[in-house]
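Today's session is about reading a structure prediction critically. Students often jump straight to the picture, but the first step is always the sequence itself: look for stretches that repeat, for charged clusters, for runs of hydrophobic residues. Only then move on to the predicted structure, which in these notes is written as discrete structure tokens rather than atom positions. Here is the chain we will use throughout the hour.
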Amino acid sequence: MASSYGTDADKSSLRSNYLAVRKSLPERTLIESDSSIESALWAFPLFAEAPLVLSYVSFSAEVGTRDIIGRVLAEGRRVGVPRVDAASRTMAFHEITSLDELEPRTKGILEPGADAPLLSRPSQLVGSVCLVPGLVFDGAGHRVGYGGGYYDRFLAFYPGDKIGLARTGMISSNPLPVERGDVPVDFIATEFGVWSCRGR
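Below is the predicted structure for this chain, in token form.
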């Protein structure tokens, strides 16, 4: 069910509310929703034909990406996943060839090793797509994440297409609060398909 939190709700409140809702969802619901989101992605040519996919590695009850990463690699396409630098509050994507190359780091989230090839030049990312996590998205593609700002700082200079992954209950029926530096996604993939946020 779509969110009914209004624009007067600040990001901290929204973050707390959506984290609580996500934690309350039965595992079967998560599995079924994520399977439908994955099917929607594979039916979306922009994603299905991208030679390079940048993806977060799902953690806890986030929309799952590990099966997505595995399938993209099995198809012979390239995958980059983020490695966080907590000191500078930045992240960079590194290329992997297998999920086995990941190791637990920041908050236990799986990340590539420091020696994994770095994807830092814009020319390396042209034609790629980036799968973006979030706790809640609105129709214009704005999102509330975990508050670190890592994705917004990366996406500010990212030249490819940005796809948010969201279960239906993670879509707000009201505009979300937007701050300077927030970067909206271009598309949102849900259980019912992928829709464009551009021009909204």
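Discussion point for the tutorial: The two ends are 21 Å apart (CA to CA).
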